[in-house]
Amino acid sequence: MTALYVEIAEGLRRSILSGEYAVGARLPSESDLALRWSASRGTVRQAVALLTSEGLIGSRQGARRIVLRRERRHSFAELHSFAQWAQAMGYRATSRFLHRERRGATPEEARRLALPEGSGVLDVLRLRLLDGEPVMVERTAYADWAAPTVEALPVDCASIMDSMAAEAGIVAHYGEHLIDAVPAGSDDARLLRVRRGSPLLRQRHLTSNPDGRPIEWTDDRYRAGSVTFNVSNSVGTAPLIRDPGALLM
Amino acid sequence: MTALYVEIAEGLRRSILSGEYAVGARLPSESDLALRWSASRGTVRQAVALLTSEGLIGSRQGARRIVLRRERRHSFAELHSFAQWAQAMGYRATSRFLHRERRGATPEEARRLALPEGSGVLDVLRLRLLDGEPVMVERTAYADWAAPTVEALPVDCASIMDSMAAEAGIVAHYGEHLIDAVPAGSDDARLLRVRRGSPLLRQRHLTSNPDGRPIEWTDDRYRAGSVTFNVSNSVGTAPLIRDPGALLM
DNA sequence: AAGGGCGTCTTGTTCAGACAAGTTCCTCAC
DNA sequence: GTGAGGAACTTGTCTGAACAAGACGCCCTT
């Protein structure tokens, strides 16, 4: 049983994506929607808050809500999992394990993963491909407590996050992402078939479980032009933040 | 008068940032907070929803909320306005106008700005500096209806968005941002003092007013290492989206 | 025809109560 | 000691009501 407000949101989302409400058009009022779905106004407000956070609709006090955009958006899991994202987009995602070994955590890794000094991590290097084209180099450090599960996975495993959830009940619940641009190193260049020093889009992310315990710290580097990150915001919501680079590390 | 739920959120945010609740610690329960602030549970829930969207706290049904992070975040306006962001971060932001002229809109600009074919735009090229260091090249196309206001501004105007709000009541309300990496062109390279082809972090964004009418379409290019974009998410919230680059334009 | 004023509509904020569903922790039995 | 069971706690969902505040359109005046 999905929640009622989720159903209402899905209904509205369908209507928007199908073009029933054009971009710029006004949505029905909250009380209208409440009647239609036999829900209270509070529940309707939860539904439209969801769509607002997706950037699909906008609102101002006193005026009816308006449609801002007409595009499909993706779920949380697809931000963490390259495999899930690719599948949702209709691409064939594959990967090649290039390296997998235990080693001591660097000071930064220990800090990010909230591990005591001298802890070990599982270091994994993977090349990711979309429809056979190399697109991204992934360097991940898994916290030692999660390492055994990852080591047990087959080498051709498509989605480590999916498998960890299925095998060991380790699920990603929170994520923090740092996005910047870096020049390709010689390894990056060879793997992604670009010139050394050419631009790569870097997404470093820390993934945590429901308790807030960090699972992995990852450095993903995308070949320029292969992906674009996309953010929507409104007055009152600020999901994305710009930080001075020098102070971050 | 700020809303009660905003005050509660500010109070909690202060407590988290000051370290009163450590990272990983459990927050008081909703009913606890409701008592303390003489508010209803619904209002408290609005407050914690705000902090959740900022990535400061996390929650799971049945368990008390936990503190995920202890960092200041910035507001919506600071994502659109380089000047406001820099000021909030404690930097001295300046800018140099290099170019400002009317011309016909390109097909892409017309589409992004929802202008009829053959419309004009105001093309502005600016170099942005932080503490005197060139950091970003900004190329903006303002919709023709907003152009006169921008043209009337002094050349040394620090924040165009601020001035437009003050002078003409044109306020930014919605934003959509596309983030990727590109090689520096020869102009970029000269202005930012980097080698041609070296990596730049590109943030293109469309800014709209409260009616959803596009105001400007901007291409900002940051010198690598100067800024990092930062996103937080949880299961159930997906503020940032990854798109295949080729299909976007 | 242009402008101001007012009533109506709509969203924003808040309250109090109820039940569902998941977590935590203590207790008791084995 | 250890594990199963259950009570108490906590968050998630939903209702119905009320008032505040901003937007919009209509009507009347000038």
Largest interface, chains and sizes: A-B, 69 and 69 residues
The CATH architecture of the largest domain in chain A can be given as 3-Layer(aba) Sandwich
Instruction: Give the helices and strands of chain A as they follow along the chain.
Output: HHHEEHHEHEEHHEHEEEE
Oligomer: homodimer
Q: What is the CATH topology assignment of the largest domain in chain A?
A: Chorismate lyase
Q: If strands are numbered along the chain, what order do they take across the biggest sheet of chain A?
A: 3-4-5-8-7-6
The major beta sheet of chain A can be summarized as: 6 strands, antiparallel
Measured between the Cα atoms of the first and last residue of chain A, the distance is 45 Å
What is the topology?
The structure is a homodimer of 249-residue chains.
Chain A: H1 4-17, H2 30-36, H3 41-53, E1 57-60, E2 63-67, H4 76-80, H5 82-89, E3 93-104, H6 107-112, E4 120-130, E5 133-143, H7 147-151, H8 160-168, E6 174-183, H9 186-192, E7 199-208, E8 214-223, E9 227-234, E10 240-244
Antiparallel strand pairs in A: 1-2, 3-4, 4-5, 5-8, 6-7, 7-8
The first copy, chain A, binds a DNA duplex (30 and 30 nucleotides) through helix 3 and strand 2.
